[in-house]
Amino acid sequence: MLLTGTRELDTRRKSALARWSAEVVRRTSAPSVLAPRSVRADSPALIAEPFVVWAGAQAPEALTERELLGLKRYFGLGGVLFVDELEPDAGAFLAGAKAELARVMPDLSPIAIGEENVVFRSFYLLRRAAGRVAKAPKLEAIVRGGVALVLFSPNDLLGALAREAGGVHPFEVVPGGEAQREQACRLAVNVAMYVLCSNYKDDQVHAPFLMRRRGEKK
Predict the structure, then answer these.
(1) Which backbone phi and psi does 44 adopt, to 5 degrees?
(2) How many of the other CB atoms lie within 10 Å of CB of 154?
(3) What integer is the mean pLDDT of 202-214?
(4) Which SS3 state, helix, strand or coil, does residue 95 take?
(5) 185-190 average pLDDT score
(6) What 3-state DSSP class applies to 3?
(7) Residues 188-215: what's their mean pLDDT?
(8) What is the Cα gyration radius of the chain?
(9) How many Cα atoms within 13 Å fall on the side-chain side of residue 214?
(10) Residues with Cβ within 8 Å of residue 116, at least 6 apart in sequence
(11) What sections of 105-176 are H helices per DSSP?
(12) Which of 27, 75, 119, 123 makes an SS bond possible with 193, Cβ 3.0 to 4.6 Å?
């Protein structure tokens, strides 16, 4: 699911969400929604989704009180949010998203996570984070009780995954080219498998029970 507000994700990067789902199914046989939809933070539908992506290229607008309450409830039930910066050189979206999420969880701050974290070994063994660019080798996460509730990507993961009709990639991946794009795909799969398995690499569960189980771990 894609978390939306007043600014919609551009069409090219929306294709990355379907690609993400398709790669998870193709590579792992895990269940996944092949046609991801959009959901607002203040929508009751949010709590039915164990995993949501929030991405942008500009600083996000301030969350409303209803959106803050919706996200608090979502995280309280064990939902996971992946935040992707689409303009890594500027970093305005990531900085703004962190500020807004600090209003949701004022007691927690993002921490850097790398290859020592289960996110980097939930399916593939990865040494660093990847995306359309290679700005930072690590992700950041908001963690509660050992469980990552929010993952922050500074590298435009969606830009690397985007694929148009005919298999054409609309965005060049730099500096590593197609090898880096593959690493971005593997990171996407790992994130999805982390959501499915929580802290247990081989503990597969079905989505209807996922958020309840994650919530109980806190």
Answers:
(1) -60, -20
(2) 22
(3) 44
(4) helix
(5) 97
(6) strand
(7) 62
(8) 16
(9) 30
(10) none
(11) 157-161
(12) 123
Which phi and psi (to 5°) does residue 24 adopt?
-65, -45
The DSSP call for residue 58 is S
- Extract the tokens encoding 29: 């046989």
Residue 102 to residue 71: CA distance in whole angstroms: 11
Q: What is the mean pLDDT of residues 13-34?
A: 89
Contacts of 189 by beta carbon, 8 Å cutoff, 6+ apart: 23, 24, 27, 28, 123, 124
Q: What is the pLDDT of residues 146-173, one digit of tens each?
A: 999 999 999 999 999 999 988 999 999 9
Please enumerate in sequence order all residues whose Cβ is within 8 A of that of 26, keeping only pairs 6 or more positions apart, or say none: none
pLDDT tens digits for range 82-139: 999 999 999 999 999 999 999 999 999 999 999 999 999 999 999 999 999 999 999 9
Distances (CA, A) of 19 to 23, 86, 211, 212: 6, 17, 23, 27
User: H-helix or E-strand containing 74?
Assistant: helix 65-76
Q: pTM for this one?
A: 0.89
Q: Which residue carries 């290679």 as its tokens?
A: 134
Q: Please compute, for residue 125, the number of CA atoms within 13 A of its CA located in the half-sphere on the CB side.
A: 0
Distance CA 63, CA 79 (A): 18
